[in-house]
Amino acid sequence: MNTIVRRIIGAVPVLLGISFLVFLLMHLAPGDPVMLLLGDDATPGEVARVRHAWGLDQPLLVQYWQFISRAVVGDFGRSLKFGEPVIKLIFERLPATIELASMSLLVAILISIPIGTYSAIKRDTLFDHAGTGVALIGVSLPNFWLGIMLIYFLGGQWNLLPVAGRIEYGIEIKPITKLFLVDSLLTANFGGFWSAVQHLLMPAVTLGTALAAIVTRITRSSVLEVMRQDYVTTARAKGLSEGVIIRRHILRNALITVVTILGLQLGALLNGSVITETVFSYPGIGDLLIQSISVRDYKLTQVLILFFGVIYFVVNLLVDMLYMLIDPRIKL
């Protein structure tokens, strides 16, 4: 518990540093949010009125202090573009990104763990070389290119999957958790569930295959390293079956490295792949970030990136705690 408290305290100056850096860079970037909001035909009086209403006529340090002092008590301000509370906008988009990240992670695990493990067991065979080659191609392919190809073939040429959005127009799902897959199952809305799955498949495969390529190589290396340990040789000398050795002795110990990579990548996936969400017009927080930056929505951009930092911190802390479940000998 003391370690967790120290981690939380240590994260505070990091988050403050992130918030100040983002605040400074946003104000140094070219473009006037008031002119983008009002248009070129706005009169000087209208511009001055909007600047004063949003506090943009104050010195930069005063603006930053006002943002931080209000954020401490949970008031993150209102969006310049949408006119709504920033935190409300984020939590409206967050369920979509959680679903996309979860599905992408599932795709990555289902591909990478079996292929990486089997490649290590069958080292230097045709399967191993093929798996390594596919993983290299997966790492090298840009996400946006793969997404566009999936849209062109699966959506355009073959008309197998929808190419944009989160659910088919006209289908309604009763909001409980705001996770479409969960809510549709809770309300027995199987049509809505299937529509949500169809809309998730292409963006999830786009994100998941890139992650799977990385995790496959990490899994293979980790399994190979564990296979050389003395306790694996001892287990074989005792006459244990190869399946038991792989499950209990090799894979469980190799998973520590794999879980680290998955945890870090889950943080990236939860933050929302900006490119992938843009390509598929997927309404997640990555898409929201693009919109906020395009109109210099200072408060929304600041809070989004600060939120991303919090996600990374929480995910890393959970990964460290998960180590103890995999191997009880590990302590925080």
Describe the structure.
The chain has 332 residues and is an all-alpha fold. The protein folds into two domains: 2-72, no CATH class; 92-326, Orthogonal Bundle (MetI-like fold). It is 75% helix and 0% strand. The protein has 14 helices and no strands. The chain has helices spanning 2-28, 33-38, 44-53, 60-72, 86-121, 126-140, 143-157, 180-186, 190-227, 230-237, 242-270, 274-279, 285-294, 298-326. The longest helix is centred in the middle third of the chain and has 38 residues, at 190-227. The radius of gyration is 24 Å and the shape is globular.
CATH topology of the largest domain: MetI-like fold
Q: Per DSSP, what share of the residues sits in E-state strands of 2 or more residues? A: under 5%
What is the count of β-strands?
0
Number of helices: 14
What top-tier CATH class of the largest domain fits best?
A: Mainly Alpha
What's the order of the H and E elements?
A: HHHHHHHHHHHHHH
CATH homolog superfamily of the largest domain: MetI-like
Distance between the termini: 9 Å
Give helix % range. over 70%
- Average pLDDT, rounded to a whole number, is 86
Rg for CA atoms: 24 Å
Number of domains: 2
What is the molecular shape? Answer: globular
Give me the CATH architecture of the largest domain, please: Orthogonal Bundle
The assigned structural class equals mainly alpha
Most strands sheet: none
Residue runs with pLDDT of under 50 for 5 or more positions: none
